[in-house]
Amino acid sequence: MASQIQSVDLHGPAGRLEAVLNTGRDDAPFTALVCHPHPPSGGTMHTKAVYHAMKAFSRFGLPVLRFNFRGTGLSEGSYDDARGEVDDARAALNWLASNLHKPILCAGFSFGANVGLRAACGDSRVHGLVGLGLPVRAAGRDYTYGFLSQCTPPKLFISGDHDEFCPADVLQRIVEAAPAPKQTVWIAGADHFFAGIPGSPASKLNQMREAMEQWLAATFPELSTP
Predict the structure, then answer these.
(1) Where do the domains of the chain lie?
(2) How far apart are CA 105 and CA 124, in angstroms?
(3) Stated pTM of the model
């Protein structure tokens, strides 16, 4: 049965959050959550990298929830500089757990990677984590990752080798401080947004999605493609 898109009645501490569920197989072993990038910079649940992450999960028949953080799109409330957004992500995790009753895989892109990891680390319902374009410093905003030292589920980090918001040596130090199991994938010729660079101008989003799919298949053998 093909995946369908359903509107979701999701509520967070600041009010209603605009959300959609890409339905999956009834016998799917997991559900998935994808968090979007920085809202004031134009990030939404429809951002290209978020969509491609959703497609990676959907390839295995998993139901995938995407939502707009407070103050984005039709979501109520206002931007809270990542503080309230962590609570929004936790509300989304709670919705998945309460309504679909399956273990959860959590992914996020850029700002959403930081927020999603902060919300999901330490949550026993979350069995795997994906950080796409993990940021360290972007437009004056600093992101820290000391909490990853206590984050034990399998973790995947995918970044472009020309990511302007998280240089390779910085990401390497962050990943080294996190417990295994963990994996880092570098996408050659990709910037922070998995777009091309002058010497390799084609989009790298498909490569990002393929790397995510390969990790999912290798890390969670209970997954199977339709």
Answers:
(1) 5-219
(2) 11
(3) 0.97
